[in-house]
Design goal:
Blueprint (H helix, E strand, L loop, with lengths): L18 H25 L4 E6 L2 E6 L2 H16 L9 H21 L2 H19 L5 H20 L9 H11 L12 H7 L1
Antiparallel strand pairs: 1-2
Length: 195
């Protein structure tokens, strides 16, 4: 709230939220507390003390050189602890199982063309939700698996008109098979550069 007006923000947690100190405690425990006590403090030439209060901290040093080194290494340390987003393994497996069930049922009800178009829509829907920053590898793996699943069930429709891998790739190209491009960039640094 600024000047009596509430402004929504897409970054961080809401002011006064109970979630903010909880998340900062978890993050800072691994990113800062353990690093200071187990690594940085041991390399200091003089005495070094570190105090943390929820999402704030105080670092004290006997020598200025240690304080300057802390400042520099702290930036590198926090930079290395950026949040990575990935599809949950369980959800990933469930998505593949649902696609397999759909393909198995659809082979009897739909033509090959209809099956390809509907499969494309399903895959695009998955990517619209999961193709975010840091999740490209999982999305590529998803596309790899569903492409193989679809190939299997399309070829079980009839033995006479089975696809070869080369023919199948050509059909996917004609249909406009989705690619695992990032749909939503959640990297705050990239968003700041774009402004």
């Amino acid at each position: 709230m600024e000047d009596g007006l509430v402004q929504a923000s897409e970054e961080g947690t809401p002011k006064g939220s109970i979630l903010s100190p909880l998340l900062s405690n978890i993050y800072l425990h691994y990113a800062l507390d353990l690093w200071f006590s187990r690594r940085f403090k041991r390399r200091c030439q003089g005495e070094a003390y570190y105090f943390r209060f929820a999402d704030d901290f105080l670092a004290c040093f006997q020598y200025k050189a240690d304080a300057l080194a802390f400042r520099q290494q702290l930036e590198d340390r926090l930079e290395g602890f950026k949040l990575k987003r990935r599809t949950n393994r369980k959800k990933f497996g469930q998505s593949l199982n649902k696609f397999t069930d759909w393909a198995r049922r659809s082979r009897c009800a739909l033509s090959k063309g209809q099956m390809l178009r509907k499969a494309k829509i399903r895959v695009a829907g998955h990517l619209n939700y999961y193709a975010i920053t840091d999740n490209s590898e999982r999305c590529s793996t998803y596309i790899y698996h569903v492409t193989r699943i679809l190939f299997k069930w399309l070829n079980r429709k009839s033995q006479r008109r089975s696809y070869t891998w080369e023919g199948y790739r050509q059909v996917l190209k004609r249909v406009g098979w989705p690619k695992p491009n990032v749909r939503k960039d959640l990297n705050p640094c990239c968003r700041a550069e774009a402004i």
